[in-house]
Design a protein that fits this description.
697 residues; alpha/beta; 6-stranded mixed beta sheet; 22 helices; PGBDSf; PGRP_domain_met/bac; Peptidoglycan-binding protein
Amino acid sequence: MASVTIQKRSVWAAHIDMPLATRLWEGRDNDWYIRTYGKPPQPSDRTWEPWRGGVFVHYTGSRTSFSPASETDCRKKVASMFADHYPDSGDIKYNYLVCPHGTVYEGRGHQRGEANGGATIALSGGRELGRNTAFYSIQGMLGVPDKPTSAMLASMKKLIHHLRYELPRERRAGGELLPHRAGGWDTECPGANLLPYAKAGSSIDPEPPAKQGAEAAALNIISRGSWGARAPKSVVKVPASERRGFVVHYSAGPSSQTVRQIQNYHMDSNGWSDIGYNFLVDTAGRIYEGRGWNNEGAHTSGYNRSHIAVCFIGRDGDATKAAKVSIRSLYEKANTVFGRTLSKTYHSALGSTSCPGNDLRSWVSSGMPVDGWSDIGDGDGGGGGGGTGGVRSVASQQKAVNSLGYTPPLDVDGITGPKTVAGVKWLQAKVGVTADGIWGPDTEAAYRAYTSTGGPGKGMSSVRSIASQQKAVNDLGHTPKLDVDGVFGPRTEAGVKWLQTRAGVPADGLWGPATEAAYRDLAKGGATWSDGGLTTVRSVLRQQKAVNSLGYTPKLTEDGLFGPQTETGVKWLQTRVGVTADGLWGPDTETAFTRFSDGPNLTVDGDFGPRTIAVTQRAIGVTADGVWGAESKRALQRHLNTWSNAGLTVDGDTGPNTVKALQRHLMLMTSTKLTIDGAWGATTTRALQTALNQGRF
């Protein structure tokens, strides 16, 4: 099949015309949006695993026909959708759009999109996948009355072929082809005229190539950001000179386990600072960044500094040819990274354990033979050596550097290069930590303190955002007016002190509760909360949308104003997603919300019914049929033995001993207070539902 031609974002971005209200609110001219969003798509900080799912097909949903007279009309249409999506998601939501002429436009491209709706979709074989986590979105640019043209259908077929067969394996689409409305989603999308094509076997569902091409020349490591890693509690560096060996492990759980689930167990149950392994490999041969090349692991007692550990995700006998090729490729890469030939070994050779099972033990003992191995690129998963530190994605680091006024601003492209390292060092010097270019926990803590809690010359944004302070100063007549750019520099500090003097509070430049109260009194009712609250991670408008998306009642007014109702709503959301309910939307709340919204969204009602049973079954690796039978009970006991060292007899009897082990496990994983009484009642089920929603079971 001929390759698809994709028009880059810059083609339609030239036609962006942002609403005046948005430009005034953000203090930017229209050209800024054209320049910024005409660049390649920015990587998301959220989990992105398209190989597990596939493609959702959409339409515009307009009740009127879209009949473009020229390609310019199509480009303007895409640009208008960007302007509509921007307040909610900060970009256009679709991955690709295909116009009636058959032209394919890049939206989010190969990065994660946000057009498919939240939560999950149940598929055949007991699978349940995130709608945005595991699926590309392709929009056919049709209104309700429009029929797809032959050119549109032909291009959609080529595009799906490209996504399935022509990308590196960590970006390939899986084989599912579904309409947006699939899984009971409350929408008519993709409309009656496109619906017949949004299914397996339709004319836009491409056949596999007669002869599959070779894999990409280089394997790529899936970064921590791409699999949704939590920030480590601490990071300990290991000099390359100390590395001597390469040790193979297995997870001893179902191959359907996610890396995040393993990390949650290591951090919440074992109390470790992070996932224990340096890298992990799944049955398809995908490589995931754990602690990376340069950090001390927690995998093999006595060998955590000297050895790099790779964990195969699965049980004894599950390791595929692709998995073994990737493990061997990782070993060869390790030799290159450390400049010496590392010893090959396995966990049970270094300690008393059955890990990694008979199959991998025999394979490693035989020298890890494979037909050939692949180069591993330095791109997606540098393991902290490229400046990631495992705490914040590279794109997020670049945004943070820019937010503090770095010039010239970094390109937010998710790629660690000399400019990004220099920018991070500049930020580190500014926030008062060692300028080593690696964004670890110390840098994260210092950055949060600098942007949120304030200090001389830094400002304080925990009560009112910096941009809102600048607006308030201007509203009281300060001249010359401050730039409303959200950056706390000398002029903003002077302006806040001017306001404080007028309001009759100490002029320290820090906008705390006393300044807020005095300002509101001074403004005689004319003041608003504006975009108060903590907005360094997510704007107030997007916080309000997030609260409403989880079913908060009565719905918040989505006006971007942080008042008592919004604060209450944020606290409600924080309680639901399992973080401290302080009303401040910081990085912990953002991470918990994104994980929750991508998950099963179980109602925490204490009812161990078919839906909760099915989600539990997926977590413990058995067929998700919603029936709690003997095999499910045995799987639960194996799960608790593996992940909680419960020491249960696997007999399918979920009596008091099994329930007590479950209760202990839930307490460790979610910090829920439970009475360890061996009685499986509504309280235990609610704790289980919470753990499943948070991906912590």
